[in-house]
């Protein structure tokens, strides 16, 4: 006597059932963003266990893939295999395999600084710098205008480069009035090296334990190792 | 800004090292609890100090300009007599650690005889001309009474010293409390910001300029002590609770004028900031501008100078050697540079209708910003530095991921870095719960006021630490220090040299640290 199985409503063409079909439709409609299981449940009203089963089956038949969300750790997104994960999931252009490509960024920053150093006019527009990356020989060095801007902005945050609005005079003669230009901050700002403030140059300024340090406590100025090192003549 | 916790601890430390531990108890009591009467102090001060002793200490502290007495008028119709209260002057106490800076200012401007005289006043608190002459007579190299008189006159003319304030100003009770609020929104726009009690007391105690900085200050029996002519109404005058007649009667008593001394330090700092961020030429122009506007500055912490013309700036500039080398066209170019803005520097000078205004606030803010950022860099690293700069620039709440994107930092590490800064009080955080997402979003912001306060507290803490460490180093080489230097040889000599190097480093570091404190607290 054979056990009667619940008949699975197989779809004739692709060999997947009704639930799977609905879910796959939803996932495809979401393109590069994909869908989370939570979204599948709420959108299709299918029971949680059935959703899990359907997702597993779709994965097995190589119709969908799982992509982690860089912005929300622990949340999995499911994408139809024909789509590439979008920026929101991967973290953006600067991420490869889920990690920030720091060495690439630093390399590009160095190139920007060298360009700015080389250009005599000192004040340079975004387009001038972009033109260097646009005609870069290797594909890896090619940048979009937006990416070039991001790199420059990062250098501004590093205090290596400053943004100046053109006033059309002297230094700015080759630019439109009001256009944002870039220039090296130069030695005056320490060229990215932070000027040593009065506080930052004493051990307590950089000390991670300052909140715990008291005159006669376990951590104190008379016993502390930071002072010991600083005063080691 | 009121004193922070470590500000108080540091102030008490200064008082202890100058006047001993009993005086510091009285002072701490006032710093922590606010104005009190002498009876209240003897009751509340940590250890038992009897009333007479409290009064002696108060007298000492008043003499050294660390405390001011005052009383408040009883309500109208009330028969009760106003009680004298005492308020600790936190600012002046902290000045106690920077006397050498004041002395240097005067030395540079008026020479060593004047700075020597100021030193006498700084270490003694208050003195009369006669006492200054006596001190000189007893010194190793007397300058003579004529020189003393002359120097004193110069110091008064430059406003580096002033006649002592009224010993016990009486504050009216009416312009206090809720009554002020009732004036309505319109009125409050016209009136100045409500002053703190301390400001009101000091204002009431300070005599008008003609008395505060008299041209002639020979002995004059009619108007000698400040309160004779000050704004205290007739009938309100009475014998002060503590006896102030330290000098021979009817002689003017002088003291250092911290307000002017701080103003000069502030101006010097501004010139230095301009020199470092712009160039020598701009610094010279700034110096001239500060000189032109100085006499019209009402308080030390002025935000903006009075407007001044190109002509008046140039006139001032050519009084100096460096200035004479500059053409008018060069000065104009400097002014243009000073009024330019970039992401790196704000405008230092505001140009309007052919006149120029020094924007003190913006100049000082640049140095404050650098000071904050260098601490962030040292303590939390380069990524944090970028995030901090990004958030200060945005000046609003920004979500974690946006910060990571803008600063190009690894998303996985960003929350930890932000949390670390938040825990230390360098960032402000807000949680934003969104339905459907089980983790709340975290939003971050740099609140400059909160960071300044946090840093100031830490800087007082660090100053205290440097001072304690110096004492510790001194104590551990006590015996060695008793031996004469020329008799030392070999290992002992080396140890002595090491001690010297340490104490030089500690002293110069605390000197520089105090510059940063001035930047956040006094400028
Ligand atoms: S004394 Fe030492 S432990 Fe204390 S805050 Fe300074 S560096 Fe840190």
Automatic annotation (TrEMBL), chain A:
SUPFAM superfamilies: Winged helix' DNA-binding domain (SSF46785). InterPro entries: RNA_pol_Rpc34, RNA_pol_Rpc34-like, WH-like_DNA-bd_sf, WH_DNA-bd_sf. Pfam families: RNA_pol_Rpc34. It comes from the Eukaryota. GO terms for cellular component: RNA polymerase III complex. Keywords: DNA-directed RNA polymerase, Nucleus, Transcription. One of its GO terms (biological process) is transcription by RNA polymerase III. It is found in: Nucleus. Its main location: nucleus. Belongs to the eukaryotic RPC34/RPC39 RNA polymerase subunit family. This is DNA-directed RNA polymerase III subunit RPC6.
From TrEMBL, chain B:
DNA-dependent RNA polymerase catalyzes the transcription of DNA into RNA using the four ribonucleoside triphosphates as substrates. Specific core component of RNA polymerase III which synthesizes small RNAs, such as 5S rRNA and tRNAs. This is DNA-directed RNA polymerase III subunit RPC3. Its main location: nucleus. Residues 11-70 form the RNA polymerase III subunit RPC82-related helix-turn-helix domain. One of its GO terms (biological process) is DNA-templated transcription. The lineage of its organism: Eukaryota, Viridiplantae, Streptophyta, Embryophyta, Tracheophyta. Keywords: DNA-directed RNA polymerase, Nucleus, Transcription. One of its GO terms (molecular function) is single-stranded DNA binding. It is found in: Nucleus. It comes from the Eukaryota. It comes from Brassica campestris (Field mustard). Pfam families: HTH_9, RNA_pol_Rpc82, WHD_POLR3C. GO terms for cellular component: RNA polymerase III complex. Residues 167-186, 222-248 are annotated as: Disordered. Component of the RNA polymerase III (Pol III) complex consisting of 17 subunits.
């Amino acid at each position: 006597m054979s056990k009667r199985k619940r008949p699975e409503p197989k779809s004739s063409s692709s060999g997947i059932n009704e639930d799977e079909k609905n879910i796959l439709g939803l996932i495809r409609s979401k393109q590069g963003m994909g869908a989370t299981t939570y979204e599948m449940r709420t959108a299709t009203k299918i029971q949680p266990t059935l959703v899990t089963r359907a997702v597993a089956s779709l994965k097995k038949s190589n119709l969908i893939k799982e992509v982690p969300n860089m912005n929300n750790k622990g949340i999995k997104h499911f994408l139809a295999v024909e789509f590439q994960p979008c920026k929101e999931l991967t973290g953006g252009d600067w991420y490869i395999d889920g990690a920030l490509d720091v060495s690439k960024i630093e390399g590009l920053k160095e190139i920007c600084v060298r360009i700015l150093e080389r250009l005599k006019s000192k004040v340079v527009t975004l387009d001038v710098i972009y033109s260097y990356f646009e005609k870069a020989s290797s594909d890896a060095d090619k940048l979009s205008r937006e990416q070039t801007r991001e790199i420059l902005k990062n250098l501004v945050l590093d205090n290596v480069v400053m943004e100046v609005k053109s006033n059309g005079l002297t230094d700015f003669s080759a630019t439109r009035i009001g256009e944002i230009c870039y220039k090296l901050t130069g030695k005056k700002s320490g060229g990215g090296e932070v000027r040593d403030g009065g506080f930052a140059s004493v051990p307590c300024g950089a000390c991670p334990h300052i909140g715990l340090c008291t005159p006669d406590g376990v951590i104190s100025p008379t016993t502390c190792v930071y002072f010991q090192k600083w005063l080691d003549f | 800004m009121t004193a922070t916790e470590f500000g108080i601890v540091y102030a008490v430390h200064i008082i202890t090292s100058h006047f001993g531990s009993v005086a510091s108890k009285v002072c701490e009591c006032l710093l922590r609890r606010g104005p009190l009467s002498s009876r209240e102090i003897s009751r509340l001060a940590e250890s038992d100090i009897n009333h007479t002793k409290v009064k002696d200490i108060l007298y000492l502290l008043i003499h050294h300009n660390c405390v001011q007495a005052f009383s408040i008028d009883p309500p109208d119709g009330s028969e009760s007599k106003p009680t004298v209260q005492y308020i600790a002057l936190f600012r002046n106490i902290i000045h106690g650690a920077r006397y050498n800076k004041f002395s240097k200012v005067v030395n540079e401007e008026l020479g060593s005889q004047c700075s020597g005289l100021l030193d006498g006043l700084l270490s003694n608190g208050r003195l009369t001309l006669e006492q200054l002459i006596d001190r000189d007579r007893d010194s190793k190299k007397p300058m003579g009474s004529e020189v003393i008189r002359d120097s004193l006159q110069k110091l008064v003319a430059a406003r580096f010293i002033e006649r002592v304030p009224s010993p016990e100003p009486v504050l009216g009770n009416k312009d206090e409390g809720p009554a002020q609020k009732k004036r309505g929104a319109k009125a409050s726009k016209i009136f100045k910001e409500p002053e703190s009690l301390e400001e009101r007391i000091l204002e009431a105690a300070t005599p008008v300029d003609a008395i505060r900085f008299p041209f002639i200050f020979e002995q004059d029996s009619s108007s000698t002590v400040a309160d004779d002519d000050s704004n205290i109404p007739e009938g309100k005058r009475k014998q002060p609770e503590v006896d102030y007649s330290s000098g021979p009667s009817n002689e003017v008593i002088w003291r250092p004028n911290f307000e002017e001394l701080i103003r000069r330090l502030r101006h010097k700092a501004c010139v230095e900031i301009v020199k470092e961020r712009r160039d020598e030429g701009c610094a010279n122009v700034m110096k001239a501008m500060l000189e032109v506007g100085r006499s019209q500055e009402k308080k030390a912490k002025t935000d903006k100078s009075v407007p001044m013309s190109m002509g008046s700036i140039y006139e001032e500039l050519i009084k100096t050697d460096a200035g004479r080398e500059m053409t008018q066209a060069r000065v104009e170019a400097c002014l243009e540079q000073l009024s330019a803005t970039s992401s790196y520097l704000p405008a230092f000078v505001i140009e309007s209708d052919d006149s120029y205004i020094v924007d003190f606030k913006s100049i000082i803010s640049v140095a404050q910003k650098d000071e904050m950022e260098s601490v962030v860099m040292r303590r939390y690293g380069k990524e944090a530095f970028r995030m901090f700069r990004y958030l200060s620039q945005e000046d609003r709440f920004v979500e974690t991921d946006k910060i990571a994107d803008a600063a190009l930092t690894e998303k996985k590490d960003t929350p930890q870095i932000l949390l670390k800064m938040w825990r230390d009080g360098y960032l402000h955080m807000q949680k934003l719960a969104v339905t459907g997402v089980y983790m709340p979003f975290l939003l971050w912001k740099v609140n400059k006021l909160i960071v300044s306060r946090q840093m100031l507290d830490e800087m007082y803490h660090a100053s205290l630490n440097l001072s304690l460490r110096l004492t510790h180093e001194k104590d551990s080489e006590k015996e060695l220090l008793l031996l004469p230097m020329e008799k030392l040889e070999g290992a002992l000599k080396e140890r002595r040299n090491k001690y010297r190097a340490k104490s030089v480093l500690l002293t110069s570091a605390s000197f520089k640290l105090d510059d940063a404190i001035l930047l956040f607290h006094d400028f």
